[in-house]
Structures are given as structure tokens and as C-alpha cells.
Design goal:
about 675 residues, three-stranded antiparallel beta sheet, disordered C terminus, single chain, two-stranded antiparallel sheet, mainly alpha, Choline transporter-like protein, 3 domains, membrane
């Protein structure tokens, strides 16, 4: 063994150091409070400790009618004054009415002015000037907080949209409006608020039933282990039962088509052709034609003949595939520690995801507050231009555009760092993809090395190394970090291009012409195919690296040509393996799911008293089913890697050895018998 792809290894280490530096820089400049806390029109955080807004945790909008939708309110800036308040309004009121009655109803004024700008307490100021300068809102409406923002308190009464049981309200400008005018400004809020209530109930269900969910996942793990052990004895039986079942079902289909064809004989109109009746929206019409059933029968007969011919000509290769599946089960039985290696890969990927997410948040919040001119007059030439709130009142903008204000818009900046934040985000995504692919590659190479040590042992299990998994992991890290990083780099580049294409497709949606849509669709399809091909090549290249210790390009080339020389065996083994593992996942997830269903619906008398009281029994049920499938997928991914490794070793064994005393086969006795040899040649001791 020697170090491979050293240059890529050095580049990989440098990139990791640079990635750490990027995270540090983002941490210094970023401020996640910008995500946690809403920001008012003055760039101040609502609810931030040790500030004037410490007890004002909710954002209030002066005129919510100016906001087109909740998406604008949450993600962008609504073109109205925004203020931090301690609570949302709980009543209808207008500034005109409150000002008119402030002398003999001071309590109403004191309540209303908490939604005015801080320090404003001049009810004698004319209404026109107050509304022009936006010192106070023209109206307040009953609201409730959502995502720390005040939204209208909508409800439906007898199918009619209401706010606080009222269908109309005064807008504070002399007009009476219907609450439906608020619909656009708060479209979908009720559904989201209902979802929040459902979310709380779901959280309660998880808090009550979490240990039963863990028990279900443990049962899934035991069933997955049991299935892998039983594959040594049942792989062939399961496969042939499925094949003959398919043949039988197709045979029944042929008979049924013939019966329908014969039954329609002599019925008026049944001898018409599909061409005669043309296109019909009611497809039952076609089932009244003899020609339809004749076509079905011919198609099914063709499929039946193809399957039977494939079984006849590929029977030996199918037997080899089944023998390799049994051998894989035997190998895992000797190296049980490999079943738990996916936990290591999961932890590595979890670290990558966490670091990427934190870095992305800090980068996104790295800007300084940017203020823009907000004017009521649409013809104001200064509207949406940047401004300085400290010097804004000394400029002539307020004279040319009465009522204009300098309000907070977003976070950004003009420094070199802020100009390249998008590039940094792109680099963050790229290195994240590179690291995730490296973690997967490390797992594949480690497992391949462990299973290869099993295959190439003269006497199984006596000649298997003491700690094959840990030895393989050490070799992969010590000698082949560069090669694994090289393969991961190629895959990360293709994945980044796919991400960019998806981003462009999303941004250009609605503005594309037919040619642009066609071009983007073709590019996305091509790069999807390229990614799948690279994953296949990389997987087998890592196996060759684990076996021979060569660099990535050489290993990929040798693996590709070795597979091409055995392309039929590859296809058969791949489909047989996919079928059996898919069957195993369905059996594990389905079996545990049925058991969980009977348990959580109190249909198991023995455990009826132990079942927790739930809001939705389907919450832990779906969690158990999905979790069981993922657990089974984790175990079976090890098994699939084992079978792929043994297959490449098997192909190498056939090409390098001839079964003689000088070059004995390393394959098992069952594989040797399938190849037509009567007995194994003696192996070296």
C-alpha cells in the first residue's frame, strides 16, 4: 500500500481549513438574531434583551392592507411602518374616533397610542398630518401573534369570513370596508394557524409515545438482522417464488383476455376497430371491443415468452446471483460489526449538515442594516433609494415627498466581504456536497475492504483478519483519502451544477419561452443521468481501491472494464439484489407497521392498558413505519455493498485464477459447483 492521489488529498485538506476559516469569518460578521427576532422600521430587534424593545416581542404593521400576502410580511418588507409592541390589538378602533373622544375617554387614547411611534402623545395634531407622517396607524383591528407578527384574527361563521365576529370595519380614512379586503393581506393565515395547533398536538403525541417508537425501531432492527441471516437459506426460494408468481399472474391475464375476446364474439359493435371509434374520454368504451382484448393478449403473450426465454438462457447467471446473495449473508455473519458502520456515516453527514446550516445562517445575516426611502406618493423620485436615518430629516426629501420616511429595508452592505456573500454561500454549498460525498465514499471503501478480506481469505473464516472493519477503515484514511476525495469532488461538481439548474428553473419560471424550458429540461435530465452514472462508477472504483490500493482513475477504469466484460452478470445480479432487498424493506416496514397499528389502536388486549392516550394515533404509527424502513435501508445498504464487493472479487477471481494448484479459486464451494467444476483445487495453507 502507498498513498494515492496525494495532490487531491492536499487540496482537500486545504479546502477543509478554508471552510473552517469561512465559518469563523461568518461567525464574526453574522448575527443570527436577525433570523430569530423580527426587525422594526428602525432596524431594531423586537424582544432583544437589554434594549428598549426587550418586552416588545411582536411586530405590528400600521396598515396591513398594504401587504400583499404573509410571504411578503415574513420574508420581505411590507411598505408600511412596522413597530415592536408587547401585544397585538384586541379591538376595532380608528385614529379619527380616538382623537375625537380623547378628552372624555382618555383610556381609549392610552390604549391606542401604544401602537403609535414611541414617544408620540399629541392628540391635538391634525389627523391629516398624523397619517401623513405615520405617527399612528389609521386603524387597528383585532389580531393575534403568529411568527412574532400581528395578523388579523380571522374566523369563519356560517361560511362567512369575519374578524371578531364582524364582517365590516372602518379604515380610519372615512370609509367602511368589508373584512374580505384583508383576505389578500392575510391569505392562508387560518390554515397556517390551524397547522400550528396541529403541530402542538403532534409534539404532545411524540412526548408521550417516544419510548414506544424506540421499541418499534428496535424490533425493526432485529427483523432486519433476521432477514439478512435468513437470506443465506431463503434467497433462492424467495426469488423463484416471485418469478413463478409473475409467470402465473401473466398466464391468468392471457386466459382472461382470451375469455373476454371470445365472450364479445357476436355482440353488435364489438368488431369495430379502435380507429373506427376514434379517441374517447370514457375508456370503458374500448373494453367493449374485441380488438382491445386481442391486443392485450398479444402483449401479455410477448411478455410471458420473453420472461421464459430469459429464465432459460440466464438460468446459470441467476444461480450465480443467488449464490452471491447467500455468500453475502454468510460474510456479514462473520463480520457483524459492518452492520453498525452506517451509524458512523450518519454521524459524519449530520456534522456536515449542521456546520453547513450554521454557516449559511451566519452568512445570510452578515449584512449591516440598509435603510430606504418609503414614500406614500408613487411618483416620488426618491422612493426605494437608500438613506441615512440620522441625517434624513435634514434633507429636502421630506419637502419634495411629504410623508416620506427613512425606514429599515434589509441587511446588506457595500464592503468587499458583503459583495461576495453570494459567492461564499455557493462555496459553502459546494464544500458541503464534497464533504457529504466524501463521508459516503469513506463508508463504501471501508465496507468494501472488510468484505474483500473475507473473500480473499484462503480458509473461511480462519484466515479473516482479526478486526477487518477497523483495519479497512485505517487503510482508507491512511492511504486513500486523496482518492476518495477525488471521486467525491467529481460527484460534488455535478451535483452543484444540478442545484444551479434547479435554482435557475425556479427563478425563471413564468418568464421562460418554450425553447428555454426545453433546454433546461434537457440539461437537468442529462446531469441527472450523469450523476447516477458517476455514483455507479465511484462505488465500484472504491471497491477496487479497497482491494488493490491503486489511485482513483486506475481503479475506476479497471472496475468499469471488468464490469463491461461481465455486463450480463451485472444486470442479473443488480435486479435480483434490488428485488430481494426491496422485498426485505417492505416486509420489515410492513410487519412493524401492522404491529404498531394494532398496538396504538388498542387491538392487542395484553397491552391495551399500556397504550398512551394520543391526539392522533397515526403520528407514532407513521414515525415507526418510516423509521423502520430507514433502519432496514441502513442494514440492507451494507448488504448491497457486500454483494457488490463479492461480485467484483468473484469476477477478478475468474480472470486471474484457473482453479489449478498454482492458481486456486478463492470462491466458495457453492459458486464453484455452479461454474461446473466437480471439486475445488487444493488451496495453499
Amino acid at each position: 500500500r502507498h498513498c494515492t492521489d496525494i495532490i487531491c488529498c492536499v487540496i482537500f485538506i486545504v479546502v477543509i481549513l478554508g471552510y473552517i476559516a469561512l465559518g469563523v469569518v461568518a461567525w464574526v460578521h453574522g448575527d443570527p438574531r436577525k433570523v430569530i427576532y423580527p426587525t422594526d422600521s428602525y432596524g431594531q430587534f423586537c424582544g432583544q434583551r437589554d434594549t428598549l424593545n426587550e418586552n416588545k416581542t411582536i411586530l405590528f404593521y400600521f396598515n396591513i392592507l398594504k401587504c400583499a400576502s404573509p410571504v411578503v410580511l415574513i420574508n420581505l418588507q411590507c411598505p408600511t411602518t412596522q413597530l415592536c409592541v408587547s401585544k397585538c390589538p384586541d379591538r376595532f378602533a380608528t385614529y379619527i374616533d380616538v382623537q375625537a373622544s380623547y378628552r372624555y375617554r382618555p383610556d381609549q387614547w392610552n390604549y391606542f397610542r401604544q401602537f403609535c411611534k414611541p414617544g408620540f402623545n399629541n392628540p391635538r395634531k391634525s389627523v391629516a398630518q398624523v397619517l401623513r407622517d405615520e405617527d399612528c396607524p389609521s386603524m387597528i383591528i383585532p389580531s393575534r401573534p403568529f411568527l412574532k407578527r400581528c395578523f388579523p384574527d380571522f374566523s369563519t361563521k356560517n361560511g362567512v369570513l369575519t374578524v371578531a365576529n364582524q364582517t365590516t370595519f372602518k379604515d380610519g380614512r372615512g370609509k367602511t370596508r368589508n373584512v374580505t379586503d384583508l383576505r389578500e393581506a392575510a391569505n392562508g393565515i387560518n390554515n397556517v394557524l390551524d397547522a400550528r395547533s396541529v403541530g402542538m398536538k403532534i409534539f404532545e403525541d411524540y412526548a408521550i409515545s417516544w419510548y414506544w417508537i424506540l421499541i418499534g425501531l428496535f424490533i425493526a432492527m432485529m427483523l432486519s438482522l433476521l432477514f439478512l441471516v435468513l437470506l443465506r437459506f431463503t434467497a433462492g426460494v424467495l426469488f423463484w417464488i416471485f418469478i413463478f408468481g409473475v409467470i402465473g399472474i401473466i398466464g391468468y391475464g392471457i386466459w382472461h383476455c382470451y375469455w373476454e375476446y371470445d365472450h364479445l364474439k357476436g355482440i353488435p359493435g364489438s368488431d369495430l376497430t379502435v380507429y373506427d371509434i376514434g379517441f374517447q374520454t370514457d375508456f370503458k368504451v374500448y373494453l367493449q371491443l374485441r380488438q382491445t382484448w386481442l391486443a392485450f393478449m398479444i402483449i401479455l403473450c410477448g411478455v410471458e415468452v420473453i420472461i421464459i426465454l430469459m429464465l432459460i438462457f440466464l438460468r446459470n447467471r441467476i444461480r450465480i446471483a443467488i449464490a452471491l446473495l447467500k455468500e453475502g449473508s454468510r460474510a456479514i455473519g462473520y463480520i457483524m460489526s459492518t452492520l453498525f458502520y452506517p451509524i458512523v456515516t450518519f454521524l459524519l453527514i449530520a456534522v456536515c449538515i449542521s456546520y453547513w446550516a450554521v454557516t449559511a445562517v451566519f452568512l445570510a445575516t452578515s449584512g449591516e442594516p440598509v435603510y430606504k426611502v418609503m414614500a406614500n406618493q408613487t411618483l416620488c423620485k426618491y422612493a426605494n433609494l437608500t438613506c441615512d436615518p440620522e441625517t434624513f430629516n435634514t434633507t429636502n426629501v421630506t419637502k419634495l415627498c411629504p410623508g416620506a420616511q427613512c425606514t429599515f429595508a434589509f441587511y446588506g452592505g457595500e464592503s468587499l466581504y458583503h459583495k461576495y456573500i453570494f459567492i461564499f454561500q455557493l462555496a459553502n454549498a459546494f464544500v458541503f456536497l464534497w464533504l457529504v460525498n466524501f463521508a459516503i465514499a469513506l463508508g463504501q471503501c471501508t465496507l468494501a475492504g472488510a468484505f474483500a478480506s473475507y473473500y480473499w481469505a484462503y480458509r473461511k473464516p480462519a484466515d479473516i483478519p482479526l478486526w477487518p472493519l477497523f483495519s479497512s477503515f485505517g487503510r482508507a484514511i491512511r492511504y486513500h483519502t486523496g482518492s476518495l476525495a477525488f471521486g467525491a469532488l467529481i460527484l460534488a461538481i455535478v451535483q452543484l451544477i444540478r442545484v444551479i439548474l434547479e435554482y435557475l428553473d425556479h427563478k425563471l419560471k413564468g418568464t421562460q419561452n418554450s425553447f428555454t424550458r426545453f433546454l433546461l429540461c434537457c440539461l437537468k435530465c442529462c446531469f441527472w443521468c450523469l450523476e447516477k452514472f458517476l455514483k455507479f462508477i465511484n462505488r465500484n472504483a472504491y471497491i477496487m481501491i479497497a482491494i488493490y490500493g491503486k489511485n482513483f482513475c486506475t481503479s475506476a477504469k479497471e472496475a468499469f472494464f471488468l464490469l463491461m466484460r461481465n455486463v450480463v452478470r451485472v444486470a442479473v445480479l443488480d435486479k435480483v439484489t434490488d428485488f430481494l432487498l426491496f422485498l426485505g424493506k417492505i416486509l420489515v416496514a410492513g410487519g412493524v407497521g401492522v404491529l404498531a397499528f394494532f398496538f396504538f389502536t388498542q387491538r392487542i388486549p395484553v397491552f391495551a392498558q399500556e397504550v398512551p392516550v394520543l391526539n392522533y394515533y397515526w403520528v407514532p404509527l407513521l414515525t415507526v413505519i418510516i423509521g423502520s424502513y430507514l433502519v432496514a435501508h441502513g442494514f440492507f445498504s451494507v448488504y448491497a455493498m457486500c454483494v457488490d464487493t463479492l461480485f467484483l472479487c468473484f469476477c477478478e477471481d475468474l480472470e486471474r485464477n484457473d482453479g489449478s494448484t498454482a492458481k486456486p479459486y478463492f470462491m466458495s464451494a457453492s459458486l464453484h459447483r455452479i461454474l461446473g467444476k466437480k471439486k475445488l483445487s487444493p488451496k495453499k495453507s
